[in-house]
Amino acid sequence: MSSGLRWGVLRAVDCGLVGPAGRWSWSCSSRVPVRAASGPGRSPVNVFDRRMKKRQKNWAAALEDGHQYDYLRAEVGSRVADRIYDVSRSFPLSLDIGCGKSHIAEHLNQDVVQRMLLSDVSEESLRRRRGGHVPTHRVLADEEFLPFKENTFDLVVSSLSLHCINDLPGALRQIQQVLKPDGVFIGAMVGGHSLYDCAAPSSWLRRSGREGSPPTSPPSRPSATWATCSLRPVRHADGGMGESNCAWNRRALLHRDTVLAAAAVYQEMYGHADGSVPATFQILHMIGWKPHNSQAKPAKRGSATASFGDLSQISRPAGSKN
């Protein structure tokens, strides 16, 4: 990757939740995207208004019916937790970056994670964190500036919090720094093809001379689909998730006739026979280990004692009677 990280392993898997409202299925395909967003000697891009993102997350977390909009975070958080269980070790101290309402920690137990720090830029999200079996401690911090010492954590996780980071490679470098040697990072983030079905009507409006802007912030390119009734509920759901557009070039207001026109285009392009329309999220899963001398390494070139070219000369295994 172009971030300057020296991960022992960094694997990305592009996954999607697909299904009608209330019913979900999961599909995955291996994909390793490469993006030169920033690096040594480069200035990070400044696309996102982080103060606006904090306000959006605080507003969403304070909603009385906020639990109705947690389904995507809850689903992805549970799958990140599943990946933690796939690692055959326990983690004395872990960190959840951009934890929200702690949708990962609620699925863990102390046999795997003994203690977890919950870090988020939103005070309301931390205040309304979900309960669980793992002792947790809250830390108010921005994902772009981690206030932790190097070599502190055995495990760092992140679920749906890295897609609005201005300097994503820099954030990954910070994650690597706070990990102990041989520590593991497990993350999931929204990919660049998310809500493409919402973006198409918005693009049509711009081409036709009407006002229009992306319904959400432009995420990093690294899917889940649910059915809803119209464009307005889709955008309401985004707001309830705290995922409204926070790009600096966002429009402050969309007029009612613009929303109705976009809804009509949306229905025409993607509508189902029952009147519902889909909204699609692309989810990118990542896992990586900080280098350590104990990790397995490839054998030195020329150290092999047998050749694959000799396989054709072997008629049967050694010691076989038949």
From TrEMBL:
InterPro entries attached to this UniProt entry: Malonyl-ACP_OMT, Methyltransf_11, SAM-dependent_MTases_sf
Domain Methyltransferase type residue range list: 95-186
Highest taxon above the source species: Eukaryota
Entry-linked Gene3D superfamilies: Vaccinia Virus protein VP39 (3.40.50.150)
Keyword terms: Methyltransferase, Transferase
A Gene Ontology term for the protein's cellular component: mitochondrion
Composition-biased stretches (Polar residues): 304-322
Molecular functions (GO terms): S-adenosylmethionine-dependent methyltransferase activity
One GO biological process term: methylation
Ranges where the record places region Disordered: 292-322
Family, similarity comment: Belongs to the methyltransferase superfamily.
Protein name: Arginine-hydroxylase NDUFAF5, mitochondrial
Protein source organism: Tetraodon nigroviridis
